[in-house]
Design brief:
Oligomer: single chain
Distance between the termini: 43 Å
Structural class: alpha+beta
Strand order of the largest sheet: 2-1-6-5-4-3
Radius of gyration: 13 Å
Number of helices: 3
Length: about 120
C-alpha cells in the first residue's frame, strides 16, 4: 500500500469519525496546518476549518458513511472517488477528490468535486 493510499484512507476515516476529539485528531494527522479544502460548497483553510465542514456535513447527513473508491496516485498527488450513503446501501452523494501532499507527507490541498447530489424539492 502506498503512503498516498493510506493517507486517502485516513482522510475518509476523518469524514466518518463522529467523536469530535477523535475526528480533530485524525484531521490534524492527515491535513497540514495551512492546508486548503475546496469543493462546490466550501473553501476553507486549516484543520479547524476543515473540522467544522466535516461536522456540518455529518449533521446534514446523520447516520450516513463515506466509502472510499479506487485511489489513483502519482508523484505527490492522489485522486480518489468516494460515496456517501447508508452503510451497505445506495449512495446519495458521489464525488471525487484530488489531494496534493507536501514534503511533510500531509495533505496541503484538496479539490473536491460532486458528481451526484440529492435532488432538492
Amino acid at each position: 500500500m502506498s503512503d498516498l493510499q493510506y493517507l486517502a484512507e485516513r482522510y475518509i476515516a476523518a469524514w466518518n469519525e463522529t467523536d469530535p476529539a477523535a475526528r480533530r485528531e485524525l484531521i490534524g494527522e492527515v491535513f497540514a496546518d495551512d492546508g486548503r479544502y475546496t469543493d462546490p460548497l466550501a473553501d476553507v483553510t486549516g484543520p479547524d476549518a476543515l473540522d467544522a465542514v466535516v461536522g456540518a456535513v455529518q449533521g446534514q447527513f446523520a447516520g450516513l458513511v463515506f466509502t472510499l473508491g479506487p485511489v489513483d496516485t502519482h508523484h505527490h498527488i492522489a485522486r480518489f472517488t468516494w460515496e456517501l450513503g447508508p452503510a451497505g446501501g445506495e449512495a446519495l452523494v458521489v464525488g471525487f477528490d484530488v489531494a496534493v501532499t507536501g514534503e511533510d507527507g500531509r495533505i496541503h490541498s484538496v479539490l473536491g468535486f460532486l458528481d451526484k447530489v440529492p435532488a432538492t424539492a
